[in-house]
Design brief:
Structural class: mainly beta
CATH class: Mainly Beta
Largest sheet: 18 strands, antiparallel, barrel
Helix content: under 10%
CATH topology: Porin
Distance between the termini: 40 Å
Amino acid sequence: MKKIISLSLALLFAVMTFAQEDKKEVKSTFKVDGEFRTRFEYMDGFGKLTAAESTAEAQIQSSQRSRITLFYKTDKVTSKFSVQDVRMWGQDKTVIGSNPISTYEAWAKYNFTPSFGVKVGRQQLNYNEGKVMWHKNWNNYAASHDALVFQFEKGKDLKIHFGGAVNADAGLYNSSFNDDGSAAKLYKDMAFLAITKKLGPLTINFLDLFEGRENPNSTTVYGINTVGVYPVLKLADDKLNINGSFYYQMGTAVGGDDIAAMTYLANASYDLGKIKLAAGYHSQSGEAWNDDQSDNTNKIFSNPYQGAHKFFGFMHYHLKSIDMKRGLNDINFALTVKPKKGTSVAVIGHMLSYANTPADGLGNEIGTDVDLMLIHKFKGMKLIAGYSVFLPSADFTTAQLGIDTEARFANYGWVMLAFKPNFFTHKTFK
């Protein structure tokens, strides 16, 4: 009996000791995290139509992104350092580009007060819905910027971020990457102001981005300003989500023309628990094929750092519209089903068309992109798979391949495995 009482007292003391430790205030946290993301892809007609009689074979590739991240935080200082390796399976070099190993993030933040801090170094810049500034994480390289950012955050009700960057490298304009892995040559200098204010069920997001873009054939820098708002309204216990955005672009285009361009979108979704329905409309301004620009005005909206993959479909036929500078309209819908916890299946459709006439005698319709996607979470790992098809319009097929030429069935399949382990976590207590 005495042994039982002694054992009970010992267990009670241990529980009380652990409970007291849990209540201790954390002084510092140090973590070492990893990421291993492998993607297998099959591409036939991805982003570009192939003639039916073509003997070109479908492209099959396997790529991998590996990251290791060091994270440190105290009440005054937060820092993050992340190195990534991007490469094609079976090759010594990268998937696309020449530097397999690169620094993805390297920043430090000092908190002068619990609400105000300064963050400096290579970092992600993600704001609003990702139409103007986003991390572009689908790309193997993703996007980061060398920047200085002042951050004022008062809980979840108010956030004000003001930052910028100046590029001292004559060859590279910034540290973000294109889809092909090369450094994006977008700005010589950059500044932005992002404000988020929560008003009950309504959240208003404001963003103003200024870029100084350099003419590649001279040292002249042209100023481009993109300003807009992204309101989000959540109702019915957050089941109903209504959001939209409008951005206006002004300034001087590389070449000297005035800029007067815009983009806007409107979305609505309703969550029924295991089923979620969504629909939206997206428009981006451009110019018609016969616009003589006698008004010396550039009406083409340029997407600074948008996450295009999340907006226009996985087959990337929106790039044809952007390359041709005709603008883009997109009517989209989505149905997501969650049969069980950790698993979801989605079907997403995009009906794409030019915002302006692409050529004499051709209609504006581009075609329909249909994406199927499966997400399943294992313990410590995520499996994501997708299959997409593109159904081109007759006029688009004629424009891309010529008169009386049929296109081969355009489809794209991929499977991605993502594993994000935590190798080490250490906390000290006050």
